[in-house]
Write a structure and sequence with these properties.
It is a single chain. The protein is of the alpha/beta class. Helix content is 36%, strand content 12%. It has an eight-stranded parallel β-barrel with strand order 1-2-3-4-5-6-7-8, surrounded by six helices. Strand 2, helix 2 and strand 3 form a beta-alpha-beta unit.
């Protein structure tokens, strides 16, 4: 029987998701300067919970002070972040959605002007920045686990590790640059060691009712499709995660390196071993989302649509003909969708033709 967007999703740990639509983790730069939760971030996320998303996920939240990538980023690096996180978790729970924090460390893409700390990099990017020591890698692994514990203490249903888009975990996976000789570089298995050690430590540090997910990039940033597929295969077989969220950029695209198979098809045919597989990338309509499920995904993660409509999930589930409004859109439209002023500015500066001219 075909899977429907409205079908609940049972995972290996934690509560069942009420449907197959997750809010993708979206950078929005609207937290306070110290990483604590703002009212704007709270309003943005709780509106998506009310809007029917089965899982509502935060933006990438930095797990270490040195791992912050930009100003206004949500933090989960210290106990000073706990009160706001607890407030958010409670508010999301009241909407009926499931909740998750995306755990993030920017690595060589952090901003020292924001953090006031040296870069932490798997390899030396220049003559003045050394590669991380083995002890420093261990400390960051502990930071990920500590952040997961904070998320659990705050009342979230789970966390997702950010292993995609060339941030720290993905930097270790980079076959072009990671030539470390201490067991964390060189071969594909060694380059994935940090990822699997983080997953194991997060799982060990959290309870049996806590969900653990992972976002991966299928190719790019020094990762080939074959290596991306092999890493995904190992993750699905590991028993360490409840779901794997593949960030495809566009679910309908072919690999950049060529080939006659869609990128999504390199992953939906992998054995799952009880782990759920999600896909993300330009899912803008009910038809797009249904196509992903028919293709073999267990759920879809929605980003742009979730910005344009706080209730994208409810609309897509109710109407098989629903499609997100066309861009650009006015700032007034975004404000009505509970997108805060800092987020609107970020979209205007960084996303071409998203916010209409004149705002």
């Amino acid at each position: 029987m075909p899977i429907s967007l409205s079908d609940p999703l049972i995972l290996g740990h934690g509560p069942t998701w009420p449907n197959r639509v997750a809010l993708a983790p979206l950078t929005n730069t609207q937290s306070h300067a110290d990483g604590t939760l703002s009212d704007e971030e709270l309003a943005w996320l709780t509106a998506r919970g009310r809007g029917g998303f089965g899982l509502t996920m935060t933006c990438a939240a930095y797990v270490s002070p040195a791992g912050q990538a930009w100003g206004g980023q949500l933090g989960i690096a210290g106990d000073e972040h706990l009160p706001g996180l607890a407030r958010l978790a409670q508010a999301l729970r009241q909407t009926g959605t499931r909740s998750s924090v995306q755990l993030h460390h920017a690595g060589r893409r952090a901003d020292p002007a924001v953090t006031g700390r040296p870069l932490q990099c798997p390899w030396a990017p220049d003559a003045t920045t050394p590669a991380m020591t083995t002890a420093e890698i261990g400390a960051v692994i502990s930071d990920f686990a500590g952040a997961a514990v904070r998320a659990e203490q705050a009342g979230f249903d789970g966390v997702e590790l950010h292993g995609a888009h060339g941030y720290l975990i993905g930097q270790f996976l980079d076959g072009r640059h990671d030539d470390r000789t201490d067991g964390y570089g060189g071969t594909p298995q060694n380059r994935a060691r940090m990822l699997f050690e983080v997953l194991a430590e997060v799982r060990r540090a959290t309870g049996p009712g806590f969900q653990v997910g992972l976002r991966l990039t299928p190719e790019g940033n020094g990762i080939t499709v074959d290596e991306g597929r092999e890493t995904a295969r190992r993750v699905l077989a590991s028993g360490l995660v409840d779901y794997l969220d593949m960030s495809l950029w566009d679910v309908f695209m072919y690999p950049r390196a060529g080939g006659d198979r869609l990128l999504i098809d390199h992953f939906v045919d992998l054995p799952r071993h009880g782990t759920r597989l999600g896909v993300a990338g330009r899912v803008l309509s009910s038809k797009d989302a249904a196509w992903c499920l028919d293709r073999g995904a267990d759920f879809v993660s929605v980003g742009i649509g979730g910005i344009l409509h706080h209730d994208w999930a409810a609309r897509a589930i109710a109407d098989p003909r629903f499609a997100a409004r066309e861009r650009p859109v006015s700032a007034d439209v975004l404000r009505r969708e509970h997108v805060g002023p800092a987020f609107i500015d970020y979209l205007d500066r960084g996303w071409e033709n998203f916010v209409a001219a004149g705002r």
